[in-house]
Amino acid sequence: MAGLSEGNNLDPWYGHYAARTTGLSASEVRALFAVASRPEVVSLAGGMPFVSALPTELVTSAIDRLMRERGPVALQYGSGQGAPELREQILDVMALEGIRGSVDDVVVTTGSQHALELIAKLFLDPGDVVLAEGPSYVTALVVFRSFQAEVSHVPMDEHGLIPAALRERIAALKAAGKRLKLLYTVPTFNNPAGVTLSWERRLELLEIARENDILVLEDNPYGLLYFDGPPPHAMRSVEKDGVVYLGTFSKTLAPGFRVGWALAPHAIREKLILANEAAVLSPSSFTQLVISEYLSSADWRAQIDTFRGVYRERRDAMLSALAEYLPKLSWTIPNGGFYVWLNLPEQVDAKSMLPRAVKQLVAYTPGTAFYADGNGRNNIRLSFCYPTPEFIREGIRRLSSVITGELELLDTFSQTGPLTRITAERNVTSPPPNLG
Ligand SMILES: Cc1ncc(COP(=O)(O)O)c(C=O)c1O
């Protein structure tokens, strides 16, 4: 067989893959899903929405009506840009975050993940630089890597990405002759950090991007899932030419539909449609039209409110369990979304601690998954979206015992005396000054 001579024992096609696949390694999150799905493990690892909070009859009645009234259309190929009626409704959804756009500039994709892939395909050549928050959404990093781009992480604090740090980084990269293409940001209820970019900083980042000719990729799956009051409006609400905005129904409805969208500047929109057609011909007519039926017949705003209530209760359960069981550590306090970012004592490596955590029946995502540069060693992303409040509490209790055990282990092997004391300096109530 061709290629055998260049192969190895595991994969006879090794050596045949395109160079871009070298970045395609299984993420830490992915490997975890298998382990964490065992029922006895409290998983604080994945970002699965709690879809059981969506009454199934809302979906079945939308499907039923669709099939009775427009079955052949729902089962047919559709437009590469997405169903026009759904694109109109997407404008209503985005209006809740201050965005006014044209239906012509909305492109429906197979989840917002697919929009990330398409934008990367349109803009990234090998060696191009994507500026991104540190930490950043893990599967966006996988996409950028698969187009052989370099990701340069810019530090965040509790108000999101730090503009001065961005300016400095851009200057340094330009001085090194790098091509800067995108600023990728999850400004609202960041995955994984849970923090939200302030309004002032949104304006400042847009200005920096404009001055430096960098396209902003604003990824906003969580913006409508706020707990203590609405977040600042989307960056796209004030800048239409320099921002590609990504939205999705995955978190406010259900991810199984695989329907997301991009709102792109007019010129980019053309190329995006062509890329979408090249990849999938047309996004699923069936799921788009089910969602369209649902949006036109159900009280979807009230349903989002229900989700907010569910996740707020879980966020509260996580924060109070952290305060109770890990009072010496620090973490972020999210006003929405799915995630808390936990700072471990400096000497603890979250990734090497993970097998011991799973043995004690709790799973989390190690911070290194969210950096392209090896950072995040002593950070953990904790998800509060899926387990019940009781399980969250139990999960944090188990985690505290894992961390205590880890510190004792390190103490035993340390030659410099007890390390545990170092953690006593940390402050519970205030978020960490710098997430990087
Ligand atoms: C920041 C971010 N972007 C994009 C996605 C992809 O979402 P989907 O493809 O389901 O729309 C996720 C999913 O967790 C996410 O957290």
UniProtKB/TrEMBL annotation:
Annotated GO MF terms: transaminase activity
Q: Residue limits of the Aminotransferase class I/classII large domain?
A: 56-399
InterPro entries xrefs: Aminotransferase_I/II_large, Class-I_PLP-dep_aminotransf, PyrdxlP-dep_Trfase, PyrdxlP-dep_Trfase_major, PyrdxlP-dep_Trfase_small
User: Which key words are in the record?
Assistant: Aminotransferase, Pyridoxal phosphate, Transferase
UniProt key word Protein biosynthesis: no
Superkingdom, according to UniProt? Bacteria
Record has Ribosomal protein as a keyword: no
- Name the needed cofactors: pyridoxal 5'-phosphate
Q: Which PANTHER family match?
A: AMINOTRANSFERASE, KYNURENINE_ALPHA-AMINOADIPATE AMINOTRANSFERASE, MITOCHONDRIAL
The name on file for this protein is PLP-dependent aminotransferase family protein
Species of provenance: Leifsonella bigeumensis
- Which classification does the entry list for the species? Bacteria, Bacillati, Actinomycetota, Actinomycetes, Micrococcales
